[in-house]
Design a protein that fits this description.
35 residues, mainly alpha
């Protein structure tokens, strides 16, 4: 069970990184399009 929780935490941090990168990318493209 402990290994499962560790894996879950890693997946969560990976997902947070991906969502953060997605937000940065979408904001960047919006800024480019508005110019």
């Amino acid at each position: 069970m402990k290994g499962y929780l560790q894996e879950l935490r890693e997946v969560k941090s990976c997902f947070q990184t991906l969502s953060f990168a997605y937000i940065v990318l979408t904001q960047g493209t919006k800024a480019k399009n508005s110019q």
